[in-house]
């Protein structure tokens, strides 16, 4: 049986990265926005749809960062150029919210990423590497 495919969005706004902070079952953690790839969807279509559903932000895929197998899921980490603005929770996540299941999308300074309980742990390194590469591209030659 092949693993479930997932599109994961890595979005930067200057020196900030977009995270979905979670409170579920008394546990606090953060994830990158994203979700399952529906039948007939491409990676970039799934990423654009998931980001819009979860945050209300419009985006385009600008690069493929990594593919990582996590247990029963294969996660494709995609660099996304998102519209500016504050994210607003929507989609299935908004419908699933309860006192014990919260979603809080927001921009977090990359410099504070070490303080975030980001899961899976491999995501932190992918974000930091992508951010460093984006800074390198902006440096004058």
Secondary-structure element series = EEEEHEEHEH
Distance, first to last CA: 48 Å
Structural class: alpha+beta
Largest sheet: 7 strands, mixed
User: What is the subunit organization of this protein?
Assistant: single chain
Beta-strand percentage?
Answer: 35-45%
Enumerate how many helices there are, as a single number. Answer: 3
Residue ranges: pLDDT <50 for 5 or more in a row?
none
The whole-angstrom Rg is 15 Å
Give the averaged pLDDT, no decimals.
94
Shape: globular
| Number of β-strand runs | 7
What percentage of residues falls in helices of 4 or more residues?
Answer: 25-40%
Concise overview:
The protein has 141 residues and is α+β, with helices and mostly antiparallel strands. The protein is 26% helix and 41% strand.
């Amino acid at each position: 049986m092949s693993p479930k495919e997932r599109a994961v969005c890595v979005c930067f706004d200057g020196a900030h990265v977009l995270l979905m902070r979670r409170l579920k079952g008394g546990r606090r953690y953060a994830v990158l926005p994203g979700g399952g790839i529906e039948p007939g969807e491409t990676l970039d279509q799934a990423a654009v749809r998931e980001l819009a559903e979860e945050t209300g932000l419009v985006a385009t895929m600008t690069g493929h960062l990594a593919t990582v197998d996590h247990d029963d899921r294969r996660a494709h980490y995609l660099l996304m150029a998102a519209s500016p603005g504050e994210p607003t929770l929507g989609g299935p996540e908004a419908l699933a919210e309860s006192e014990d299941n919260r979603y809080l999308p927001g921009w977090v300074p990359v410099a504070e990423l070490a303080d975030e309980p980001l899961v899976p742990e491999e995501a932190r390194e992918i974000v930091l590497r992508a951010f460093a590469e984006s800074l390198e591209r902006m440096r004058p030659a």
